[in-house]
Design a protein that fits this description.
0% of the residues lie in helices and 51% in strands. The protein is built from no helices and 6 strands. Strands 5-4-3-6 form a 4-stranded antiparallel β-sheet, with no helix packed on it. Strands 1-2 form a two-stranded antiparallel sheet. Strand 3 and strand 4 form a beta hairpin. 3% of the residues are buried. About 10% of the residues have low confidence.
Length: 63
């Protein structure tokens, strides 16, 4: 638990390192994201080649 401004807030999210590789052009992105309810949010939307669907995503040990 974490105290913030007198209120207790449960830390449900954890940070994870994610490698995203584009299967179209081969570009590789290493990002940090937050795990929340079974999904990971990194803010990544699309590769520089405009590919947003054909991606290889690998999760690494939490930071």
């Amino acid at each position: 638990m974490k105290k913030r401004m007198g209120m207790e807030v449960m830390m449900e999210t954890s940070r994870v390192k994610v490698t995203i590789r584009c299967k179209v052009c081969g570009e590789k992105y290493v990002l940090r994201g937050r795990r929340d309810k079974g999904t990971i949010d990194t803010g990544f939307r699309q590769c520089i080649c405009n590919n947003s669907n054909d991606l290889e995503i690998e999760e690494h040990i939490a930071l």
